Amino acid sequence: MSDQEPQEAGPIYFYSSRETPYGCFSNFSPHGVELDGVWWPTSEHYFQAQKFVGTPSAEEIRHAPSPKLAAEMGRDRKRPLRSDWEQVKDEVMRRVVLQKFKTHSDIRAILLATGERLLIENAPHDYYWGCGSNGSGLNKLGKLLMEVRTALHHPL
Predict the structure, then answer these.
(1) What stretch of H or E contains 14?
(2) Which stretches within the chain are classed as H helix?
C-alpha cells in the first residue's frame, strides 16, 4: 500500500444502545421491526421470543415493556426452550438484524457509513455474541452486522 492510499480506520466497538452513533447496532436500540406478521418493539424482543415460538411465552416476551425485560424473560430457564434453539439461533438473529436495517433508513445509513471497518460488540459478559471481557469472544453479532452491511451494499 502506498502512502497516498487512504487507510481504513480501526475497529468500531459498540455495546450500549445509548451510545452515539453506534448504539443502533445494539439489539436493545428502539428500532422495531415487523416479522412473522406482527410488530416487535426491538430486535431483542424478537430474538428472545423465538426461543419459545408457538408458546404463550413468545407473546409475553413480545409485550415486555423493555428490551432488558425481554432478555431476562428469554433467559429464564423455567420457560421451555425450543429443542432446536442452538441450531437456529444464528439464523434467527440474522433475520431480525437484517430486517431492522432494511426497515430504518437512518440506522442503515450509519451501518453503511462504517465502510469495511471491523464491528465488535464490546459485551464484557458475552463470549458468543460479543467479544467478552478479554477480547476472546466470538463476536457473532459484530460479524453478523458486517454480513448485513455487505448484503445491503449488494441487494439481490
Answers:
(1) strand 12-14
(2) 43-49, 56-62, 67-74, 85-103, 105-112, 140-153
Domain 12-153: top CATH class: mainly alpha
Q: What pTM value is reported for the model?
A: 0.91
Q: How far apart are CA 23 and CA 120, in angstroms?
A: 12
**In sequence order, what are the beta bridge partners of 14?**
121
Q: What is the DSSP letter of 79?
A: S
Q: What share of the chain is helix, strand, coil (3-state, %, to 5)?
A: 45, 10, 45
Q: Distance between CA 64 and CA 81 in Å, rounded?
A: 18
The contacts found for 55-59 with CB under 8 angstroms, 24 or more apart, are 55/79, 55/80
In this predicted model, what pLDDT tens digit does every residue of 8-31 receive, in sequence order? 689 999 999 999 899 999 999 999
Question: Are the C-beta atoms of 44 and 27 separated by less than 8 Å?
Answer: yes
The CA distance from 117 to 120, in Å, is 10
Cα separation of 1 and 139, whole Å? Answer: 28
Looking at residue 33, what DSSP letter applies?
Answer: E
